[in-house]
Each structure stands twice: as C-alpha cells, then as structure tokens.
Design brief:
Elements (H helix, E strand, L loop, with lengths): L2 E5 H15 L3 E5 L15 H5 L4 E3 L4 H13 L3 E5 L10 H8 L2 H4 L9 E6 L14 H5 L5 E3 L4 H13 L4 E6 L6 E5 L11 E4 L4 E5 L3 H13 L5 E5 L2 E3 L3 H11 L2 E8 L4 H12 L9 E5 L10 H4 L3 H12 L2
Parallel strand pairs: 2-3, 2-4, 4-5, 5-7, 6-7, 10-11, 10-13, 13-14
Antiparallel strand pairs: 1-8, 6-12, 9-11
Helix pairs in contact: 1-7, 3-4, 8-12, 9-10
C-alpha cells in the first residue's frame, strides 16, 4: 500500500503525472501550464518531464484551447485542459455547450469526446474580478457534460484519474481555497464510482450536504454543533451532474432533515434541484423543509467584502438551528 500525505495541489499534479505516464494519448494543455507550471503550480514539472508535445503552453484564447481539445479528442487523444481561473471559462462556453457536450448525441453515439476541463473555482483567496466565480450550475444544466468537484487530496487524485479515463467530457472543478489542505492519499486504493456521494461524518439529527470547498466548512459546523449536543451527518456530494440522489435520500431518511451548502448563489443553484428532488422523494420522512445556504444572487464583490458574501460557519449553523426548530 502506498499512502502519503499530500496537499490537493500535489495530489492533482500526481494524478496528471500518472495519467501522462500510463497513456501516451493523454495531453495537458492551457495557459502557462508548461514552463511556469500553472499559476497555482498544479502542473509544476510536468513539461520538463514529458516534453512540450505532451504538456502544451497555449495562447490566451480559451475558445481556441477547448476547440483544439475537441479536435484532438476526435483524433483519439485524451486532452486535459486547464482554464486558468473560473471567470475565464466564458469565452469557451460556446465550444463547451454547443460542441463538446453535444457531439456524442449528434453522432448517434459513434463519436466520443474524452476531454477533461479543469477549472479552479470559488472565492476566499483575495482575488480581483473574474477570479472567484462558482459557475458549476451553468455546466451541470447542460446535458452531455459530467460535472464533479473534489474536496480532499484523495478524491482530487482519484476523481481526476476517473475523469481522464471517461469517454465523456468532464468538467472538473478544483476548490482553489483548499489547494493547500493536506490529506492522505493511497495511490493503490480502488476508488468508488465517480458520481457517488460519500458520508464523511456520521450523524443522526440532520444532514449537511456539500461539495468542493464547503465540505470542510460543513465538517467544522458539525464539530461545533456537537458541542451543543447536536449530531450532524456530513455528506460530500462530489458530483453535480449526475447527482447521487439515492445517496442523499438514504441519509435524509435517517436524519429527517437536510441543509444543502455551496459557495455558488442559492438562486437556481445545485441546492435548488436537490431540495426539489429530495422533497419529492422524502416528503413523508422530512420533519423540516430542505434549507439552502450559499452565496447571494449578486455579482461577486471586491475581495474586501467576500467574507460577507461567502457562506461561512455562522450561516451554516443558523440554517441548522432553523431546521432543528421545526
């Protein structure tokens, strides 16, 4: 067994390295991913070890990057594209939703597009405009795309491995504020399915469901609530499309209450679909309405105000108290 303690950044780097070693058709491409090693150093050292033909520095042109990746995938390659920051993805949005997501259906299943698009996302890093967005719902809404986000080093490694091996396009959201959080990684472990939710803390009174950067916040909320005699279960959703509704339902049938937490705005967020679906499925089990905690329906503010915008421990615990009060 090969177990090591790595940050999420190092785990993603190790996963890319493994994929490049195992499959000569895997390519890494994006702005500054080569010589610089990426602005977050996620791809550090890869170009030196695998060459400029495998780890490719591209022009600053997201639409061109994704369009090129589509062409490469059509020729049998497995490109892994990096979008440097979440807010930079929109020039490529047309390529992603009009071409990448639809080509398989358009070709009646004869064409596969194994493209992974890595997107560092979310706030709390003190960045300027266009660097702290949470656009995951815009992609989860598009049929033909898989959308996932790890919350820890082990998932960062293994979910990326599974995404690269998938014959379908995967949008892989990386929680940049958690990049340097460390955790154990077993590189010989057999991972569970890519789109399965995972219980990361058992509880009996209420389920907190989250993904990406908010899983750690929910774990902190559960620890704080325990001091007041409340037992909260924390469910790491891991996938926004498809969503593991069976896993959420199983937890809710046990705890009878659900609070969904994400950084993205509450309005039309992932939590809205989960709330609607779980209300349909678990109506006779629920002892309180499904509550949602997230960002506000407003443009992301300047960094000096982002602590007020982003959901934190207090807002999560307030929702817990409201749910338990029913």
């Amino acid at each position: 067994m090969t177990v090591q303690k790595l940050s999420i950044v190092k785990a993603i780097n190790a996963s890319l390295r493994t994929a490049l070693e195992n499959d000569p058709k895997v390519l890494v491409m994006g702005e500054d991913v080569g010589r610089l090693g990426g602005v977050f150093r996620v791809t550090d050292g890869l170009q030196k070890d695998f060459g400029e033909d495998r780890v490719i520095d591209t022009p600053l042109a997201e639409s061109g990057i994704v369009g090129t990746a589509i062409g490469l995938a059509l020729r049998g390659y497995r490109p892994v594209v990096e979008i440097q920051f979440d807010g930079f993805v929109f020039p490529a949005y047309d390529q992603i939703v009009t071409q990448l997501a639809k080509m398989h259906a358009r070709a009646l299943g004869k064409v596969k597009l194994p493209v992974v698009i890595r997107i560092p996302y979310g706030g709390a890093i003190g960045a300027v405009e266009h660097h702290s967005e949470s656009p995951e719902t815009l992609f989860a809404h598009v049929a033909g795309l898989k959308v996932v986000s790890p919350s820890n080093a082990s998932d960062a490694y293994w979910m990326l491995q599974q995404a690269i091996q998938s014959d379908d396009p995967v949008i892989y959201f990386e929680p940049k504020r958690r990049y340097h959080d460390k955790g154990e990684l077993d590189t010989e472990a057999i991972p569970g399915p890519l789109h399965t939710a995972r219980t990361v803390r058992e509880g009996t009174d209420l389920t907190l469901a989250a993904y990406g950067p908010m899983v750690k916040t929910c774990l902190q909320a559960a620890a704080a609530a325990e001091e007041e005699g409340k037992s909260l279960e924390v469910l790491d959703l891991r996938s926004m499309s498809p969503v593991d509704f069976d896993g959420i339902q199983a937890s809710v049938e046990k705890t009878r209450r659900l609070v969904v937490v994400h950084e993205a705005p509450v309005f039309l967020g992932t939590g809205a679909e989960i709330a609607a679906r779980i209300t349909e499925r678990c109506f006779y089990h629920l002892e309180a309405p499904v509550l949602r905690v997230g960002g506000y329906h407003a443009p992301y503010p300047p960094s000096r105000l982002e602590d007020e915008y982003l959901p934190g421990l207090d807002r999560v615990l307030d929702a817990v108290d409201r749910a338990l009060a029913y």
